[in-house]
Request: fold
Amino acid sequence: MDLKDIVKITLFGVIGFVISIVTGMATSVLGIYGPFIHTSIGSLLTAPIFIIMYKKIHKKSCIFLYYLISGLAYSVMGFLAYAYYHAPIWYCWRNNCWN
Reply:
């Protein structure tokens, strides 16, 4: 993986993160149902970005870096529990995603 791929992953990760935050803010007006609706709408809106990123780079380590960027951003913001559930380390550890 070269620097060009890492820059692409970072850009797609930031775009996905921004879309996730915007959908979270938009669904916060729904009260107690907001987190459930945010999860489904956020997944539907960020999945195409993830698929496009994987099709352009086509390396297994891009999955790890994409979710690592998201996890680091959430942990910096204070969502350590949210970052724990989105951390791909546990998934990659069990399924051997390393290149």
